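Need C-alpha cells for this chain, all 196 residues.
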Amino acid sequence: NLIQRSSMTGASAYPALYITGSATNTVQQSYAANSVGDAALFDTGAGANTVDRSTVTAGAAGARAMRFYNADGNTVVDSRLLGPAGYGAFFDATADLNLIQRSTVTGSAAYPALYITASSSNSVLSSYIVGSTAAYIVHSTNTAIGGSTLLGTNVIGAAVWFSSGNVGLTVSSSILAGGASGAVVRLSPGQSFVTA
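Here are the C-alpha cells for all 196 residues:
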C-alpha cells in the first residue's frame, strides 16, 4: 500500500497515522500532524514499513511525533519527526530493528528528541537530533547511532544519556554537544559494552 503526497491531520487522542498488524506499507512525501496526541503510531505487528521524505509533527505536551510500539523492521528516511512540545521519535515495548536515516528528529525543552526503551537493534544514521536531551536510551540492547549530530538544549541536558540496563550501545562518527551545565555523554550505573 502507498500513501503519497497526502496530508493527514487530527486533533484527538488517536494518531493521525496509525499502522498495526500490517507490513510493507509506504508513506511518501506526505504530512501527518496531531495537535492533541501522537501524530504517528506503528503498533504491534507493523513491520517493514517505510516513511520517506515526509513530515510528522505532534503539537501537544508530552506527545510523540512518531511512536514505534512492538513494531519491527521499519524505516524512516529523509524525513522530519517534530515534537515541539514532546518527543520526536519514541521506541518502546520491544520495537526492534528499526532505522532512522538522514532525518531530523526534534524534541522540546522538556523532553528528549529520541527516546528508546526496552528495545533492541535500532539504528539512527546520518541524522540531526535535538531536544532537552538529544537521545535517552534505557533497558535497550545494540542501539547504534552513527554519522549524526546530537544536541542537548536543556542547560543540564546531554547529547546522549545511557540510562540503566543497556547493553551493546554504540555512538560513532557523530557530533555531540550537551547543555551549558550538562554532560555530553551521560552514563548511569548498569551499562555493559558501551562504545562512544
